[in-house]
Design goal:
Elements lengths: L2 E8 L3 H14 L4 E5 L4 H7 L5 H9 L2 E6 L16 H10 L3 E7 L12 H4 L3 E7 L11 E4 L9 E4 L6 H16 L4 E6 L5 H14 L6 E6 H10 L6 E4 L1 H14 L7 E5 L5 E5 L16 H13 L4 H16 L2 E2 L9 E2 L2 H11 L1
Parallel strand pairs: 1-2, 1-3, 3-12, 5-10, 8-9, 8-10, 13-14
Antiparallel strand pairs: 4-5, 4-11, 6-7, 11-12
The protein binds nicotinamide-adenine-dinucleotide.
């Protein structure tokens, strides 16, 4: 049966990097129907909204979404609801994309690009699983008011609410344990149970769900310690599962261990395995239109899409092997270039991956 993919290039380098991922998808000769729609600033220009109704409809009807990036400084003066970044929040909410996968893989050829010593990151392969639709980012009530108590009664204060329900924790726990079963069978659950009720429940539920996966080893770590361990001994981790806010911070920390933001894919899935796949980086307006952006994070996002939403594991592996091969050939876009390698453009990198397939 034909599988439908919504292609949402977005802004900045989005269209350039998506074009290369689309080339790769075409080269695989799978039964895929690709349909493109504007999103972010491009959505605002085309239809007055960062997530136009037609784009949302296409996303909802598709098996998966391949997303470039959104955002440009020129939209910073728009009211918040019309800013490009709202498109991502809108898609997460409308599709119930609660499980965010952020692999941090250090490619052997790029080991010197990391800010850590090569021996600490060589062979690094961590998967951070971040809960994406709960926690303090979405908890109600929130707002501003006049303080009635605390250290400064009568002063203006702002407040947010951190909350997680048992089913929310259970479903992300299952995602993490099942992901670990396909890897080295270790999960680290990151919390702040020593201080926060929300994360005591998190820890309790993780432990309970863990009992259903006796083949997976579970350990718990406080978030402050996890932040330290990620730069001290990152290879001690395999699958890391955590809440929305801690995951936001730790996944960026982990991605930078690999030294190359242009290399890292990501996936956000719902309980029907429908997913949004995008590079971990933004729209890079500073280099847009120059043909120098690294398309590999987007190409690797397409591989994740084939694996997690479309059931094409062999094709996903072919893409990943092709990326390894072009790196081994010494081909580099400007962001990962070093002396002795060959600098290529965005399109040349895409062509090289297709050739390596
Ligand atoms: P960014 O990730 O866009 O760029 C950070 C730096 O990394 C820049 O110097 C950029 O040139 C470089 N870079 C990023 N991707 C690259 C690639 N593929 N190849 C080579 N170099 C690359 O982050 P930023 O500058 O903080 O944000 C720019 C815009 O992107 C903002 O409007 C922001 O809101 C938006 N943004 C969007 C997303 C998303 O769409 N999911 C995520 C983060 C930021």
């Amino acid at each position: 049966m034909t599988q439908k993919i919504a292609i949402l290039p977005g802004d900045g380098i989005g269209p350039e990097i998506i074009a290369e991922a689309v080339k790769v998808l075409h080269a695989l000769n799978l039964d895929l129907q690709l349909e493109t729609a504007p999103v972010g600033g491009a959505g605002y220009e085309a239809a007055g909204h960062p997530l136009p109704p037609a784009t949302l409809k296409l996303a909802q009807e598709s098996d998966a979404i391949l997303f470039g990036a959104v955002g440009d400084w020129k939209y910073d003066t728009l009211e918040r609801a019309l800013r490009p970044e709202q498109a991502i929040l809108g898609l997460r909410k409308a599709l119930g994309l609660f499980a965010n996968f952020r692999p941090a893989i250090c490619y052997e050829q790029l080991v010197n690009a990391s800010s850590l010593k090569p021996e600490l990151v060589s062979g690094l392969d961590i998967l951070i699983i971040r809960e994406l639709t709960g926690d303090i980012y979405f908890g109600q009530p929130r707002g501003r008011r006049t303080a009635e108590d605390g250290h400064f009664p009568g002063a203006e204060e702002a407040f947010d609410t951190m909350r997680y329900s048992r089913p929310e924790i259970e479903r992300i726990a299952h995602v993490a344990f099942q992901a670990a079963q396909k890897r080295s069978k270790r999960v680290t659950s990151v919390d702040k149970a020593n201080v926060l009720e929300t994360f005591q429940l998190w820890k309790d539920v993780m432990t309970e769900v863990g009992q259903q996966y006796p083949d997976v080893q579970l350990d718990h770590m406080y978030v402050d310690n996890a932040a330290m361990q990620l730069v001290r001994a990152p290879k001690r981790f395999d699958v890391v599962v955590t809440g929305n806010m801690f995951g936001d911070i730790l996944s960026d920390e982990a991605s930078m261990l690999t030294g190359s933001i242009g290399m890292l894919p990501s996936a956000s899935l719902n309980d029907k395995k429908q997913g949004l796949y995008e590079p971990s980086h933004g729209s890079a307006p500073d280099i847009a239109g120059q043909g120098i952006a690294n398309p590999l994070a987007t190409i690797l996002s397409a591989a994740m899409m084939l694996r997690f939403s479309l059931g094409h594991e062999a094709a996903a592996q072919r893409i990943e092997a092709a990326v390894q091969k072009v790196l081994a050939q010494g081909l580099r876009t400007a962001d990962i270039y070093s002396e002795g390698t060959t600098k290529v453009s965005t399109a040349q990198m895409g062509d090289a991956v297709v050739a390596a397939l």
